[in-house]
């Protein structure tokens, strides 16, 4: 059956590429033997629509044209389906290969794999290993949040979204209307940067705190979208990557290795506890809460108060 479908797709592609005028469904059915053998018009229509979608997924640009009589025809112009030679050096091929492997856990895995296959067909040398010298690397970006895919599409299509969001200090989620700019991954967590219409300001939202479905809304953006570098800086600052002071914490021995990696100094206190000095920036309180009873904030007082507030909110459910 796989061979029969491949032959059918090839015949359809040749018909669409070889014609000088749009061909109707009726003409295509008469030209391709597999379509003539279809049991009914409905069966043929379903088969043709699937084949057309498959060819487009493979990269064939199929035009739909309506003639003066209102009949719809199809064709694939050669100039629209001709790519310039693709030349990639070993480093560029490796970068593309690694990028494809990154998305193995997301629904983008199929698209990434298909993109590499298209590059092979377009001229990427077979002897160039996309993973090559980087074969020991196994990049992963885990995507477990259900909100990731609809937000990714909304960022791409520049469409406003509505979702329920629960702040770390809030017991219940609140509705947010956001113009999504970009998704960024920091410390293993996904963040959405965008314009919060209700608050009239840019905001960063952690995807794990989005509850329910993400719903898109019609209409254009009302705020200017910054460049990608500015968005990354915003997420970095919001996620606590930008620090302008230090905090002193007590950490249980053998726990909190990410905190230890950030520490500028570590002192053993005994009785199973260590004292760490770590960079303090926006978002540190939310990060410290994740370590639960293994962390006690000593200084500054406002950070300790923020962590306590967050823990109380979590305890309330």
Can you describe this structure?
The chain has helices at residues 2-18, 25-31, 33-36, 41-57, 90-102, 109-122, 148-157, 228-238, 257-262, 284-289, 301-316; strands spanning 23-24, 63-66, 72-75, 161-165, 174-186, 189-196, 201-206, 210-216, 243-252, 265-270, 273-281, 295-299. Helices cover 38% and strands 25% of the residues. Helix 1 (2-18) packs across helix 4 (41-57) and helix 5 (90-102) runs antiparallel to helix 6 (109-122). The strands form three sheets. A five-stranded antiparallel β-sheet has the order 7-6-5-4-8. It has a four-stranded antiparallel β-sheet with strand order 10-11-9-12. With 317 residues, it is an alpha+beta fold. The protein is built from eleven helices and twelve strands.
Provide key terms for this protein.
alpha+beta, 38% helix, 11 helices, single chain, elongated, four-stranded antiparallel sheet, 25% strand, 317 residues, 12 strands
Uncertain parts? 133-137
Strand order, sheet with most strands: 7-6-5-4-8
Number of strands: 12
Global structural class:
alpha+beta
> What is the beta-strand fraction?
15-25%
Mean pLDDT: 80
Number of helices: 11
Q: Write the H/E string, N to C.
A: HEHHHEEHHHEEEEEHEHEEHEH
Radius of gyration, CA atoms, in whole angstroms: 27 Å
The level of helicity is 25-40%
Q: How is the biggest beta sheet arranged?
A: 5 strands, antiparallel
Shape: elongated
State the end-to-end distance: 54 Å
